[in-house]
TrEMBL record:
Entry keywords, A to Z: Carbohydrate metabolism, Glycosidase, Hydrolase, Signal
Reaction equations catalysed: Endohydrolysis of (1->4)-alpha-D-glucosidic linkages in polysaccharides containing three or more (1->4)-alpha-linked D-glucose units
Protein name, entry field: Alpha-amylase
EC number(s) on file: 3.2.1.1
Record has Transit peptide as a keyword: no
Family of this protein: Belongs to the glycosyl hydrolase 13 family.
The keyword Nucleotide-binding appears for this protein: no
Family matches, as SUPFAM superfamilies: (Trans)glycosidases
Any Pfam family the entry gives: Alpha-amylase
Glycosyl hydrolase family 13 catalytic domain: residues covered: 44-468
Signal peptide coordinates: 1-23
Any GO molecular function: hydrolase activity
Superkingdom of the organism of origin: Bacteria
Length: 558
């Protein structure tokens, strides 16, 4: 009974909205997002491209090394990720959350739509209930999550509800009651984005259906071979009995996705192709995931980080700050329908506009974003900025000509920051002869750390990341320009210490006014040099070899 009560309480606090939501959920949909997530540094990686910890799983399911350039499995896996976690790589970078591309079991064969391509990227699901053997197994996933949690790093799973993987010689088409292959989306209106297949080779889950369907025969046969058919059926029976949902395709997948939360304490989801699914189902997913996390925390009080609610981040392609693309304030405009995804369970949306805005000056970006996030159309909401992405051909500085300046703009901007794997060591984003988005998914360039220039760039990112991690006000606070020369600004957030940043200061000895942000006697730390200075007569004094100051209140020493 105690567990049931706690689960109901978690549901009421889940921050949901949309059809079927309770009054409490609708009220919470308009509430401000947790400052932790508004300031987060989220590291996004494709496990296959990051690090190979177990060469023995490089060719699971009989997959071959016969793909087009960068379109096959390269060997990266969860054990490789775990190795970097245990070495403190992400902790040193100031990362507060890890986001992996999907690790559920993928189609086993290849597709020839864009040249011979295997499902190395994780976005072609075959079985939502299993870890793909090329990435490892459930024990590996558990160790990754537990290790991240021990370092105060949260874990987001990338989830797909819109489509299955393509049909291949080894992967059958799902039953017609589950998927459709026509029409192909024409992007002209809501139906042309949602009630259609994204491409001719991606069967679209019938998320508009409420009609009960049987399990796909290929899953029944697979689970029977693996000796878990009866268990899976019992769990499904219990899920549908508890929720009262019909056995429609989308509810099966909601059950399968939230099982990862209930079993392993996953902190949140990054939702793929969010705008291509009826928004109402996202509120259901958030509700069930919130219940699952509440249950996991009740069952694992010694492992939970805190009592933060489940977090949900959406990929609404072309959504962005300041009416970017089809965005109008906080809603996405399909032409014939406008959808506020924040009202359907999303705490944050990926800001597709930042990669375009990043060409502007820091002050232009920072003031624009602060106005939107504090008193503007996105007041109190979460956005995730990025320089580069796995599928945005307009990623900023793909040639890596200004990696240091790009890092400053991203890591000092209002909002959360997405570090795309290798941003911190200038991983190549253009690979000769690699077609399409494969060029942006090159192997992690660990070998470049032998170069002093790469080491210096990584050190630059680490300092910025540690500054952000230690100061919620940086990403979640309100921006104020204080001086043009050197360019100086503050960020303030109610209940949190402010931060003061100066760019373009003189190297060597320097003095900076604190503009009334800190009382005399306050000890401030420059997170870039690691040195400290007390405030004396309204000023601080430093002697560093850098041209910037990242100032925050010195943490209390234990």
């Amino acid at each position: 009974m105690k567990k049931l009560v706690s689960m109901v309480a978690a549901l009421c606090l889940a921050g949901l909205g949309g059809a079927g939501a309770t009054a409490a959920e609708k009220a919470m949909a308009g509430a401000q997002v947790d400052p932790f997530w508004r300031n987060a540094s989220i590291y996004f990686l494709l496990p296959d491209r990051f690090a190979n910890g177990d060469p023995g799983n490089d060719r699971a399911y009989g997959r071959k090394d016969d793909a087009e350039l960068l379109r096959g499995f390269a060997g990266g896996d969860l054990r490789g990720l775990l190795d970097k976690l245990e070495a403190g790589y992400f902790r040193d970078l100031g990362v507060t959350a890890l986001w992996m591309s999907p690790v559920v079991e993928q189609v086993q064969g290849y597709d020839d739509g864009d040249g011979r391509t295997y499902a190395y990227h994780g976005y072609w699901p075959r079985d939502w209930t299993a870890v793909d053997a090329n990435f490892g197994n459930e024990a590996d996933l558990r160790r990754v999550i537990e290790t991240a949690h021990r370092q105060g790093i949260r874990v987001l799973l990338d989830v797909i509800l819109n489509h299955t993987g393509p049909v291949t010689k080894r992967d059958p088409l799902w039953p017609a009651a589950w998927v459709r292959t026509t029409p192909v989306c024409d992007w002209n209106n809501f139906a042309g984005n949602v009630h259609c297949a994204l491409t001719s080779n991606l069967p679209d889950i019938r998320t508009d259906s409420e009609q009960p369907v049987d399990l796909p025969p290929h899953l029944v046969a697979k689970w029977r071979r693996e000796g878990r058919l009866q268990r899976e059926q019992r769990e499904l029976d219990a899920f549908f009995a508890r929720t009262g949902y019909p056995r429609a395709p989308k509810y099966y997948i909601v059950k399968w996705l939230t099982d990862w939360v209930r079993e392993y304490g996953v902190d949140g989801f990054r939702v793929d192709t969010a705008k291509h699914v009826e928004p109402e189902i996202w509120a259901v997913l958030k509700r069930e995931a919130s219940l699952a996390l509440a249950q996991w925390k009740a069952d694992n009080p010694d492992k939970k980080l805190d009592d933060r609610r489940f977090f949900m981040l959406g990929e609404v392609y072309h959504f962005g700050v300041d009416d970017f693309g089809p965005t109008k304030g906080r809603v996405y405009d399909f032409g014939d329908r406008q959808v506020d995804f924040f009202a359907y369970g999303f705490d944050s949306l990926i800001n597709m506009g930042f990669a375009q805005h990043a060409a502007q000056s820091p002050q232009a970006i920072f003031s624009r974003y602060s106005s939107a996030l504090h008193g503007g159309a996105l007041d109190g909401l979460g956005v995730l900025n990025y320089l580069g992405s796995h599928d945005d051909h307009h990623s900023f500085d793909r040639e890596r000509k200004q990696p240091r300046a790009a890092a400053l703009k991203l890591m000092l901007a209002p909002g959360a920051a997405q570090i795309y794997y290798g941003d911190e060591i200038a991983r190549p984003m253009i690979v000769k002869n690699a077609g399409g988005d494969a060029s942006m998914r090159s192997l992690m360039n660990w070998q470049d750390l032998e170069r002093k220039t790469t080491q210096a760039l990584l050190d630059h990112w680490r300092k910025l990341g540690q500054f952000r991690r230690a100061n919620l006000a940086l990403g979640a606070g309100e921006h104020s320009k204080l001086a043009d020369q050197p360019y100086t600004f503050s960020r303030t957030l109610e209940g949190e210490p402010p931060v003061l940043v100066a760019l373009g200061v003189e190297t060597g000895k320097k003095s900076l006014p604190v503009y009334g942000l800190f009382a005399d006697g306050t000890l401030l730390k420059d997170y870039y040099s690691g040195t400290e200075s007390p405030v004396v007569q309204g000023r601080v004094h430093f002697d560093t070899d850098s041209d910037l100051l990242l100032l925050g209140v010195t943490p209390e020493r234990e």
